[in-house]
Write the structure tokens for this entry.
Amino acid sequence: MDRGLSIVDRCLSLLNPYLQLMTTAFLFDLNGTMIDDMQYHVKAWHGIFNQLGAGITMDRMKEECYGKNDEVIERVLPQRFSEKEKYEMSIAKETAYQNEFRPHLKLIDGLPEFLEAAHCKKIPMAIGSAAIMFNVDFVLKGLHISHYFSAIVSADHVQRSKPNPETFLKCAEALHARPENCIVFEDAPKGVEAAANAGMKCVVLTLLHKKEEFSHYNNVIAFANNYREPGVMKLIESK
């Protein structure tokens, strides 16, 4: 009997990647989607850039706060810094952000239960973020949620940031999931655009941006302020 079970186990192991191709997978952006921290990122960048004489407003900083850190720097203060200087600016910004946000570090309302329910139903999950691993680890280790995710794709793992689909396509590949079977959770227009470019449906968390800012994307299947809302919970209940 033990021998028979081991054969079954081996067969299931071989079949698993193909079975997952037919199942739904959940892909999560991190900042503003799993934790409500985007205002802290905007504030940290705003302070650093204005110390350097950029004279940028908070409203414009909010618009520019997407993509890799190097890309943010190049958009706000182009052609002024070496790669070493941009790296140092990036670490300084993330350190300032983490120091201010750490007392408020928690998952968005309903997400702990959502992750646990999805995990129990064996829905594969990944994080696809423009954050560097320095920040991803800050969240995963700080909240002890690494075990929920089979793959992490950060800014350190891609050449092209959102709205390029590379981040989400790498997540899907790592989960052995077809793009059309992936549901992305995002909070920013550029992230929703990246999901659309990857051929993926998207749930939008409206914590920083308004619904109207996503009106021209046809891949949005739900808007929510948190993970307790019916439009989000039904994604698990239907599985």
